[in-house]
Amino acid sequence: MTRVDLIAGVRPNFVKVASLCAALRATQGNAAHWTRRLVHTGQHYDHSMSGLFFEHLGLPEPDINLGAGSGTQAEQTAAIMVGYENAILAAPPDVCVVVGDVTSTMACTIVARKMGIPVAHVEGGMRSYDWTMPEEINRVVTDSIANWFFTTTRTAGENLRRAGIEDDCIFFVGNTMVDTLLAQMPSLHPPDCWETLGLVPGRYFVATLHRPANVDGERQLVGLLQEISRHTGGLPVVFPVHPRTAAMLKKTKRQMPHLQYVEPLGYRQFNYLVRHAMGVITDSGGVTEEATVMGVPCLTLRDNTERPETVTIGTNELIGTNPANLGPALARVLSGQWKKGGIPELWDGRAGERIVAELERLLS
Ligand code: UDP
Question: Which residues pair with 119 in a beta bridge?
Answer without folding.
Answer: 96
